[in-house]
Amino acid sequence: MKKWVTSYFWIVALTLISAPLMAQETEYHFGVRWSVNGVPSSLRIHNIMLNFSGTPSHLDTRLPISQYIKNGKNKINLNSWPLEYEPDSELKVSLLYWQPGKNPNTEASTAFEVVMMPGEDNADPEVVFIDPGAPLQPLQNDIRFNRYEEYDTLEVNFNNRQSMPTWCWEEGDVLSDSNATRDSLAREYRRLYALFEAQDNDALMDASKTMIEELALASGESEAYVRQRASFTMFFDNPGLFQLRDFPEEPMTLNLAADNRVAWLTTKGVNVPIRFMHVQEDDVSSKVRLYFIRRDGQWEICR
């Protein structure tokens, strides 16, 4: 499992989390595999963005998602926004599962697979494979391809039959889509930004305490290993390679997900307020993606 977990925690190193942990172990770990051929795309679960590729790309990618899977019904969206699909354009989403200790790169099983050919006339998404014994099962009457003005989305709803912990993103207050919510969250971003300016990795990791606990539970790794992989010391120790970008002054956009219980801010497009510019690479940055809940009147980093 090490190869996949290591690549995953590189993503986690650009993300912080904080939320209470349920002391419950899962029988299987879960992942998602998706592919597109030549279109810009993004992947979301419960509308929380997991991946974004804003240029036409050929992707065949996978991520562990146990920490995003809840009991009962779950939803994944594979979004795309082409000028025009080619006849052989294909969107594919597969849900994976594997036993703890197994290598998800080579030993994961496919629970089910959905394929959509958007360039074909009158095409509908098709479930091309189902493992009836898998803990994740597609809701076949609730899988659709929606065409919107700015993007299209392959929406895959599925049922989880395995008991899961209650994750932080399920427990926050329902948030209002308002300037007051945006401005309050912006103040919390500024507080965390000050920790990045001070290069206070210990404080950032302490703020990530529940992230570390939840990801250790979801991945089967130790909390010490997760904390090491989530550390920002690589950025702080290499100022000649990575420079913290100034905090944006202009009003930012409030984004809500998970039934309006998860919030984050973006600047232009999907850019985020906290990011490190790559000194030797023009227009390249490492983004610190923060997903928050609000509980007991306080903002809490959740994913």
TrEMBL record:
It comes from the Bacteria. The keyword Signal applies. Keywords: Signal. Residues 1-23 form the signal peptide. This is DUF3828 domain-containing protein. The lineage of its organism: Bacteria, Pseudomonadati, Pseudomonadota, Gammaproteobacteria, Oceanospirillales.
